[in-house]
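Suppose a colleague, Dr. K., hands you the sequence of a protein chain of 351 amino acids and asks what its three-dimensional shape might be. Before reaching for any lab equipment, you can write down a predicted structure in token form. Begin with the sequence itself:
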Amino acid sequence: MRLSFLSFLGLALVAATLRAAAPQLAPTGATSSKAPIEPVWQARLPSFSEEDYHTEVEALFEAYEKASGRKLVPGQKKRVGLKVYADSGPGMATPVPLVKAVIAALKRRGFEHQNIFLVGLNALRLRMTGYLPSLVSGQTPFAGNPVYVLESGRFYDPVWFYDSPLPQRFDPVFAAKQTADVANSTTKDEDRKSFLATPLFLDADFWINMPVYTDHPTLGVNGALVNATLWNASNTARFFRSPANAPAAVAEMSAIPELRETWVFTIASLQHYQFIGGPFFNSLYTVSEPVVWLSRDPVMMDALMRDRINAHRRQSGFEPIDEEVRTLEFAETLGVGSTRTSSARIIRVGD
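The predicted structure, expressed as tokens, is then:
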């Protein structure tokens, strides 16, 4: 069956769909641009040590549970997923101490260690950033936690896909080079589809988005929305062929009801983020702040980071992110969150 969303391909409105073996649903839990703005809880880290991450993550979890009335405890499936980011390689991946702190907080709430799984895109970069065991030592900080590598193709379901008539498959970071001299042997119908990573919304009680922030030449901000959508599905970097295609795909995928229903919140550390040259890691253009954010509104988090990225770009003599990149505005129109940073509700915890 088919779930429909508005699309902004080429700045025009067209239909785009997600097919699934489930009854037809309308977006749930979404907010219009006039709805009350979801808060962003903020904790400051005395240091980037594992101990300090544990303390501040617990404070953030408690603040969320108190405000929402929802306890982050096992449900019927007794499993929880963490969507990490490792695709810019070492130096710009979800901090390991943050992930370990989140795992510890979930275990305190009753989840078994082996039922807390991690989801990432590329095996090589997951290994380079410590999420998969080292080929030298065989060690990993996440022994006992399953790590699902999406590019293996084993975690997509053929009945759950985002349907768009924009063909061509690319690696999300090294897009331009990957398909050089490689024949495309798939059918046109197959090239229309981006299959979703079903463990997060079919196999878990809920999942937590854990992005890292960089700028991106096509998307503007590579952060919460992108980590939950394009870096969470197959055959998606085909959208980068046109500046309007990828922002539209991000917005539409972020509004998928099943994805939103189990996506409990986003938690992000500003231990390192990059303001120009992304998504390739370049240490010359990185910034570090001892801050961790948690929010149900990925649009607001990305909008706040866009303000920060633009401020650092101007300070360094670079142009701000192109205003024609409308990723966040498209997502706001579909009710995913708010871009109104002047009205942001930042609630400090643990101070």
